[in-house]
Amino acid sequence: MYLTVVFGFIWSGVLSHRSGHNDAGPSLRTSQRGYENQSSSSTSSPSTSSSTSSSSSSKLPGFYFDPEKNRYFRLLPGHNNCNPLTREQLQEKEREKQRNKMLAEDEKPRKKAPRTGLNTSLLLQKRHLGLLPENSYCRLVHEVKVSGMRRHKLEIQSTDNSNPNTDNFRLIVGDSACERVFTVNDVSHGGCKYGIMNFSSSSRGSLSVEMCDNLYFTNRKVNSICWASVNYPDSHVLLCLVGVADTPGCVSLLPASLFSNSNPDQPGMLCSFKISSAWSCAWCLNPQFDKTFSTGLSRRVIVKDAETGRTQTYSTGSDVLAQQFALRVPVLFNGCRSGEIFSIDLRQRGRRDQSWKASRFHQESAITSVRVLQDENYLLAADMLGQIKLWDVRVTKPVQEYKGHYNEHLTQALCQGALQLSFPFPSAVPSLVGQDCYTRLWSLKDGHLLRTIPSPHPTANDLIPSVVFSSKLGGCRGLPGLLMAVKHDLYYFPYNTDYQEGGKQQPATL
């Protein structure tokens, strides 16, 4: 009898919706104000009541409960041919609502502190009283500044003003000095185009960007990019291209001077070799193997000397999706689809079994990114379950975890920015873009989530932002902050609050 009455109320609400009436019936007309006016002796709070309603509605197959209209709607396909409701549409609507809310919060001049009661004046006071060590003070001030970064749209300058950029950014990768950023854009008719953007900062506190006109087009997808130091630091760019139809994949080493407005007549690619499919690539900066690069393939790793052509192949049990070389020692770290992370010491050659793996450890899912920290005793690794862990490679154990990231299939790279500025101690911040199009930044020391930055555009699988986080965008005297490319737009989140957009400097007062 009880079940009959409950479903009778629900069905009457549905029928009233179908007939066009606004009255959903007395059983479904309880307002939010009524909840707020309940006495403290009530057995359920507003949050408990709303959560109970949501959970009960989710248990009704084929129905959706709208908390704003306080009524049920059918989710069966074809019920309303003009505007059919599906759970995917409703979830997308809720995500877009949350994104707009976060964008509005980001526009406010005063943002929520990353930690409760944390602000610069309080930190300065504790420092003067001797209650806060110097290194802790620098780290916490850094966190406050990261939480206060505001979005500014950058105008991409080009000598060819008749051809504005209308193709969506797919990848951006900064060089070691962050004066140049290699970009890959998806072309609407298929394939990719790629080039270099040059950044410069002015004494007035502004950042400008110029796109080279000498762009290259390819009908193949660019899977991975890294900068290469062949003749001098960041003299070349290493690209992994996926094969199409009868055209096999390849790895190409291109001179960066190809992408120049001043002197476009440069020689072609330095070298290129055909491969089946490359998931990742890395360049070695160790002086012993300074002309060596690697590519991660399906169940194998290839290490190649760009000058002599000497090749070493390592067979693996899984696809290698992420790679990075250490600097002090010629050791290559690899992340696999199986969740395994292993290292290869290039000084050990000629071993046929897998004893060449210097160290091995595992995560629960496919590794999408690896990043070696500056002291090279620690490594950051992200996987397709959204887990980000900090590993001590000496004991092969995780020492910290960074929660909040969302990922199921992306192979976006971890950006580990060290914003040192005038502080004697660097404060490292790992940042990563999730499949939900949110950019998250954590404190490297304790894993605290410092900032969640929503995308300026609606979320979509083909509009996932790509970011570069650096302490010197625009060169050695550049401006610190976060660079974000999404759709065909470029955004800058300055670390300094006195950033002047477009070089508009306020008059100084004496």
UniProtKB/TrEMBL annotation:
<keyword id="KW-0677">Repeat</keyword>
<dbReference type="GO" id="GO:0080008">
    <property type="term" value="C:Cul4-RING E3 ubiquitin ligase complex"/>
</dbReference>
<feature type="compositionally biased region" description="Polar residues">
    <location>
        <begin position="28"/>
        <end position="38"/>
    </location>
</feature>
<feature type="region of interest" description="Disordered">
    <location>
        <begin position="20"/>
        <end position="61"/>
    </location>
</feature>
<feature type="compositionally biased region" description="Low complexity">
    <location>
        <begin position="39"/>
        <end position="58"/>
    </location>
</feature>
<feature type="signal peptide">
    <location>
        <begin position="1"/>
        <end position="16"/>
    </location>
</feature>
<dbReference type="Pfam" id="PF23761">
    <property type="entry name" value="Beta-prop_DCAF4"/>
</dbReference>
<dbReference type="InterPro" id="IPR036322">
    <property type="entry name" value="WD40_repeat_dom_sf"/>
</dbReference>
<keyword id="KW-0853">WD repeat</keyword>
<dbReference type="InterPro" id="IPR015943">
    <property type="entry name" value="WD40/YVTN_repeat-like_dom_sf"/>
</dbReference>
<dbReference type="InterPro" id="IPR052254">
    <property type="entry name" value="CUL4-DDB1_E3_ligase_receptor"/>
</dbReference>
<keyword id="KW-0732">Signal</keyword>
<feature type="compositionally biased region" description="Basic and acidic residues">
    <location>
        <begin position="89"/>
        <end position="109"/>
    </location>
</feature>
<feature type="region of interest" description="Disordered">
    <location>
        <begin position="76"/>
        <end position="115"/>
    </location>
</feature>
<protein>
    <recommendedName>
        <fullName>WD repeat domain 21</fullName>
    </recommendedName>
</protein>
